[in-house]
Amino acid sequence: MTFFNPSAPLLCRKQNVLELPDVPGVWRFHWQIGNVTLFSSFYTQLDQACIVWGVISAVIFVTAQFVPVSWMTQAVWWSALSVIGTVGMVALTPSWLKQELGWVVYSWIILMLLGVVITDLSIFLGWGEVLSNLCPLWLGLIGVGYLCTGVGMRSRTLILTALVHLLSIWVLPYFGSWQFLATGVITGGTVLLLAEFQWDSFGSCGNK
């Protein structure tokens, strides 16, 4: 038995929400007018954690790019949002803590809190070198988090997502003064994409 399932697609459409068995904690959406389906999908608690982090990432980096607020004020906001996201992640994935994936959750907690501490210290203590590299810092931390998750869930999709984040560090300089926006699109966009599709964790795509 291979570690990954090479026959499973990296991403696939979720099953029909109307055929989904009753699972506690799952959000279900089926909007239909007559015979026309406007939107139909479902979001597991893991998907919900992805959505929470996607929104938080977008808010943090778009605010840093466009809103003329002092760095110290932003540090307070970022710290609060990151703590909320971390607590939400733990609350939405309680089964992971009881299983062999608990180390993945703890890895994310450590990485996010480490990022918050380094970011806040660089702002309040005036670490110019760190301040000028906040986007690469967060792309690196999130990339390591995806790498841990990909190994824990045996997912090629998440390993690829980790590589996208890590390789983006070398692309960032080409965005010039738009690095915060680019980071927000990368971090927020990928996690929202993961929430919308089913990926190949344990070969689950296509029920393989």
Inertia-based shape: globular
Beta-strand percentage range: 5-15%
Spatial order of the strands forming the largest sheet: 1-4
The SSE order reads EEEHHHHHHHHE
Q: How much is the average pLDDT?
A: 88
Rg from C-alpha positions? 18 Å
Oligomer: single chain
Number of strands: 4
* Overall domain count: 1
How many helix segments? 8
Question: How many strands, what sense, and barrel or not for the largest sheet?
Answer: 2 strands, antiparallel
N- to C-terminal separation? 13 Å
| Helix proportion range | 55-70%
Overview of the structural elements:
- This protein is mainly alpha-helical.
- It has one domain (45-201).
- The chain has 8 helices and 4 strands.
- The chain has helices at residues 45-66, 71-92, 94-98, 102-124, 128-131, 134-153, 156-171, 179-196; strands at residues 11-12, 27-33, 36-43, 198-199.
- Strands 1-4 form a two-stranded antiparallel ribbon. A two-stranded antiparallel sheet has the order 2-3.
- A hairpin with a 2-residue loop joins β2 and β3.
- The longest helix has 23 residues, at 102-124.
- The radius of gyration is 18 Å and the shape is globular.
- Residues 203-208 have low confidence and may be disordered.
